[in-house]
Amino acid sequence: MPEKVHTFFADSDDERVEKTAPPPADDGGRKKKRNKKRKRDEPADHPHVPEGPQDPIEVPEKPVLESQPENVSPAAPVPESKPKSRPQTKSKAKPLNETKTNFSSLREKAKALYETRRKLPIFAHADDIRQKLRDDDVMLLVGETGSGKSTQIPQFLVNEFWCRPTPTKITQDDGTQKEISVGGCIAITQPRRVAAISLARRVAEEMGTPLGSSSPASKVGYSVRFDTSTSPSTRIKFLTEGMLLQEMLHDPWLTRYSAVVVDEVHERGVNVDLVLGFLRNLVSGTKEGRGSVPLKVAVMSATADMESLLGFFREGYSLPSQEQKTKSNGSEAMQSKDGDSRDISVCHIKGRQFPVKTIYSPEPVHDFVDAALKVIFQIHYKEPMPGDILVFLTGQETVEALEHLVNEYAMGMDPALPRIQVLPLFAALPQAAQQRVFAPAPPRTRKVVLSTNIAETSVTVSGMRYVVDCGKAKVKQFRTRLGLDSLLVKPISKSAAIQRKGRAGREAPGQCFRLYTEKDYLALDETNTPEILRCDLSQALLNMKARGVDDIVRFPFLTRPPREALEKALLQLLNIEALDESGSISDVGLHIAKLPLTPTLGRVLLAAADNGVECLSDVIDIISCLSVENIFLNTNSEEKKEAAETARRDLFRREGDHLTMLATAQAYATENTDRKAWAERHLVSHRAMQSVMDVRKQLRMQCRQSKLLPSDDRRTNASREPSPVLILQSFLRGFATNTARLVPDGSYRTVVGNQTVAIHPSSVLFSKKVEAIMYNEFVFTNRSYARGVSAVQMDWVGEALAG
DNA sequence: GAGCACTGC
Known about the structure:
DNA-binding; eight-stranded mixed β-sheet; 803 residues; 17% strand; 27 helices; Rossmann fold
């Protein structure tokens, strides 16, 4: 396979962007020096983005969520979980005159933003990028932090000739021809919801178009779970990877799209691997379902590891097509037939980062909390203000330990020195406490943020000049053989270390103190282990089966999971009857695949439907609670624990966590005056309960659509008592293998495998002895824990295991 | 006696 283009764009050096910034290039054809070929590609109705000197762009120094265009600051700080999704007043078209006035002010804003855009490192490469995707269907792009790739690439491409809706004909199953329109829209996938939404908002502003469903003329929209905002004129759509997979279940040929841009591939979540596999099949196949209209694919990553992706897509081109029709042609014939579009372009765009000096520990460090403490004060004593410190630790425990130590030492500090403000940051921290890290420090105060790897990708805190990196992180790993997840502290990868270091150089030159030796660094893995090698594959496999990938072994995995892991997942799907004996997907499996749940929880939902509408309704409430992390607030202090016990007394159910969750969800749902106050009174997380209600609403809706629930939404009988037996038996249909019995020594042993398992301290059954338990999660940290636990009877378990 | 980080029509 010829490799036609392999270009590395030399770009400006880090801080000298201004000086070496290339001559302003074209953004979409608005400049004088325009590319002749492009002219006719531009629809006239494209919002006008003028050139020329404009008002200086105000880029507010606000917390920025990562994966946002690195140099873009959203107007608002980190949104409270789902900011605008709650009162859903979507898809309301504005009156025409209002829309009109909006357009002119939107255009003004876009005009102002244009100056910022053209200074982005990627801007000078707009023409090359357009040309590459005209020649080839696949482009790989390495864009370092600050290059502007996520916001600019879709704008570079949206007016290309190949990006228009194309009328074509497809052959239907019955052999008849059907006229359809293919393409017209660009999809850009993101690993996280917030990134998808804020990127869409930013690109809409830059293009001078309203966002999503706010106007029928909107050209930019987004789609994430619980919150989709698009219009009939949407041309650029940001969506989460999961959302694209979901769309592909209904439209396997992606007929709405002319291009899919897969962003942040280096994060390698399991969903992105599936997306890439499906896209490779699409670009290297016959495209019959698209009426032969090509699909352009751009794969973007922040790290330079493009070799494996290049090999991955080349392999797709060199194989005989997955589709039967071209099989006889062989790969060579296909190559000459399709010519250029069978090549793959690679681009490398430098980022815009300030230099960060790396300081290694001269000696190996045994206690990184202690070492971090020393380094923090070393920085504080020696380095000038301003300059906040970001410390990467492994988890809540180490964060809190170091928090106490720093506060203790700071008290004995010379009063003449600037003060120190310590701020913890981890996902389980209540939202209000998380927000504190974004507030600027008081005068003469240095902020020290102690964070888990949440600050590595998900949250960006501004003002950081010093990074302290312990070199470790907790990693979840699914152990196929044991059927349990382990959560262990492991060394991070080089690319994670580089990512952490980069956090010090976003606003000024910085320093990164690595609490490990250079030798240790050099011994680290190059990249993070892809999630597909670390997780239970049953959901991924079910998704593939639901899309007609019969032979899992032949699916193009960017990283192929071990055979054992695939077999385990297939067995699991067989156990819950999602697959039949031949390995084909069953009706049950097809139904489960469409639910936004793990296959096991999906199976439980269907089993509950067999036990009647009331049981299904209750099980939906419980599943909704299980779908969000921890609905109960943490109670670390003895005092708080007692308070919680009292506050939650009326929610507690002796049957276990499932019935307790049901009581909580129903009490919350029936609270009509002040849910927030109710949650606070019961030491229940209001944020988590809002998510629970979102999931519940979605599941109820789907069950009504599939006629499992009656179409009128009235809860059957609010005052009725739930049936614990039916509910728990429904759960056993999915979790029969997640059971353990009490043995004479007072411990629990798993029914399958006879392993010791302890009830997690967060469970209401903690320290209780019952005949047998069923649990949702089996996690190894310091020991094996069962989480999400209920008491069950052994004869139920026997029945469930027998099928 | 304890909770890395994401995510789904």
